[in-house]
Amino acid sequence: MIFGNETVTLICNISAFRPKQVQVKWLRLSHNQSLQEKEHCSSSECIPLQEAGEDLSDMAVNKPLKHGRLYSTVSCLRIVPTLDDDNRKYRCRVQHGKSKPVIKSTTLRVKVRPSYCQITSLPHIPEPGKQLVLCCRTEQFYPRAITLKWFRDELLVEQFTQFGPFQDRGGLYSVWNQIELTVSKNDHKVVYTCRVYHESFTGFKELSYRINLQGMPPEVLWITSDPAQPEVGKECTLNCHMNNFCPDTITVKWLKNNLQVDNGVSSSPSILDTNGRYSLYSFLKLTPTRDDHGSVIKCIVEHSALTSCEERSYRLHLVN
Questions:
Q1: Closest CA to 93 of 84, 106, 79
Q2: Tens digit of each residue's pLDDT (9 = 90 or more) over 234-252
Q3: Closest CA to 17 of 70, 95, 67
Q4: Is residue 178 within 8 Å of residue 157, measured between CB atoms?
Q5: pLDDT tens for each residue of 158-190
Q6: What stretch of H or E contains 240?
Q7: What is residue 38's DSSP assignment?
């Protein structure tokens, strides 16, 4: 399988000849030449209509070998095909002495894997009794032929709406395929799957979306300090990062030696990502004194999707 904008090596093996001298010529045919020869004959060994074409011989690497009294050569041509090379012929012409040239040709079938393949939802957070639109977006692929299928817990979904495939200026295609449903309480944890069938995949690519009506608990990372080494008498900022949670309502508390701290506490706005999940930073600014050396700072996180609060600790090790 040959992919656009990825290096591929064309190989021409010449074996069991003597004397050693052999001439190997690589040609890149125009589309018109390729089409004319396709109509003339379908065999890679047929006599070409003409020898013209872009000469790529200088790009080839020839490796001569000797086997007893006979010689062989492996000629390698490294190219980076583009969409313009689809259905184009490349030719290896071998001339040995005064014998008749041997010509081998191959026709490239270029494919481009989608650069973007993802399920998006609208709204980002589903709610019972409200409509939910799931869209499987597959973008910038080649060739045009593509099939998308939806499944609900492995059962085929018959009704869908498809937009495209439509072609961009670069010759690549994109398609959007969506389904619509009214969410019920029984849909919690139901999995919708979109299978994308395209020549650039081995089999198909599968994307999944799980309906979550109870929210997603936050991933609470460890507390870090800025500067990394706090100093006595100098302001520092401790921060705790929470991500991949929904809904966006979240409570963050800071404790110092198990006593709640309110001064110097702030949080960034909740940021929504493309998967409908949120992230947030919480900060604690303080100016440590000598007595704070060894103090334990805690960040306590509460969220509706957590069965119990999440806790992260940081021990102050001060210099000076």
A1: 106
A2: 999 999 999 999 888 999 9
A3: 70
A4: no
A5: 999 999 999 999 999 999 999 999 999 999 989
A6: strand 236-245
A7: H
CB count within 10 Å of CB 139 equals 17
Determine the Cα–Cα distance for residues 173 and 170; give it in Å rounded to an integer.
9
Among candidates 185, 241, 250, which has minimal Cα distance to 212? 185
Distance CA 67, CA 90 (A): 29
Cis peptide before 126 (omega within 30 of 0): no
**CA torsion angle for 194, 199, 202, 207 (degrees, to 10)?**
-20
- 3-state DSSP helix/strand/coil % of the chain, to nearest 5: 5, 50, 40
Q: Which residues of the chain are modeled with pLDDT < 50?
A: 39, 44, 47, 49
Give the integer Cα–Cα distance in Å for 54 and 47.
18
Place of tokens 């399988």: 1
Q: Where are the beta strands (DSSP E) in 68-172?
A: 70-79, 89-95, 102-107, 110-111, 116-122, 131-141, 147-152, 155-157, 161-167
CA distance 180 to 184: 13
Q: What are the residues whose beta carbons fall under 8 Å from the beta carbon of 10, sequence distance 6 or more? A: 26, 76, 77, 78, 79, 90, 92, 106
Please tell me the distance from the alpha carbon of residue 295 to that of residue 317, in angstroms, as a whole number: 8
Interatomic CA distance for residues 119 and 291, integer angstroms: 53
| 213 token code pair | 């009506």
Contact 140, 80 (CB under 8 A): no
Query: Are 268 and 284 a contacting pair, CB within 8 Å?
Result: no
Q: Are 147 and 197 in contact (CB under 8 A)?
A: yes
Distance CA 9, CA 3 (A): 12
The CA dihedral of 190, 124, 200, 112, to the nearest 10 degrees, is 180
Residue pair 232/290 in contact (Cβ under 8 Å)? The answer is yes
User: Do the Cβ atoms of 27 and 79 come closer than 8 Å?
Assistant: no
